[in-house]
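Because discrete structure vocabularies remain unfamiliar, we first show an illustrative case, written as a sequence plus integers encoding its fold.
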Amino acid sequence: MGDRYYARPAHRDAAVTLLSAENLTLDINPVADLRLTRRNVLLRGIDIDAYVGSTMSLDTGAGPVLLAVRRPARPCAWMDAVIGPGAQRALRGKGGVRSMPLTDGVLTLGKAEFAVVEEERSAS
């Protein structure tokens, strides 16, 4: 599919997007999948939206890939067009996260080991 923002300065720190499977809008479209959401990685059983500001590790068997979870991936109006009316609103606050790879590596389809390497630092 490609990334329309590839190599653009504003998106270099947000190259990988992740979404929690539990947040897919199946009540709006029962066959909605990751490709329709414009997210790269779908995680099950992890509230990824809660990890903004943290560093995490994903390992699908080829060694860990470290990702800095930078900011929420806010859903756009395109969600209503490809998933169905109401999808953008349904994904507000749980549309996934945009992250920056900190290490090279390979992620493959299938089970993954998830770990938080560094928690979000509080601003106090």
Q: What stands out?
A: Strands lie at 16-20, 41-43, 55-59, 65-72, 97-101, 113-118. The helical segments are 34-37, 78-82, 87-91.
